[in-house]
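This is your field. Pick holes in the following sequence-structure pair:
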Amino acid sequence: MEKLDINQIKEIIPHRYPFLLVDRIEELIPEKTVTGIKNVTINEEFFQGHFPDHPIMPGVLILEAMAQVGGFLLYKSVENTEGKVPYFTGVDKARFRRPVLPGDVLEIKAELIKLRGHMAKITAKSFVEGQLAAEGRLSFVLQDK
């Protein structure tokens, strides 16, 4: 089991503020599962316009956070990853179950369901205080930077 802090995260994925949507990896078991955390704060730029009087995290950004966490699972599940980056290539069966609000801690759990070479299918779910917020089946490919 592996944990990653923000500096280790930034070594693997190219995202940076304001688009880095994972703060830490709590648990990573290659070829099996990963759990990541996104602390959602009112300081996020997207809350200025989504929506000013009722701020909620946009669903597409919840999916992106899930994809960033899922990308670690692919990256850590294959060999020879030097100079490569996980790319999010698709989503199926995405569903949003509850709003994600400022102050929430988004816990993202992903499970590898298929790995073929440098391509993967992963199921991902995000939770707030144990309640399902969003879910989907994500596709990835690991390619050169």
The CA atoms of residues 57 and 100 lie 5 Å apart. Helices lie at 6-12, 59-77. The first helix runs from residue 6 to 12. Strands lie at 2-4, 24-29, 33-39, 84-96, 105-116, 119-128, 131-144.
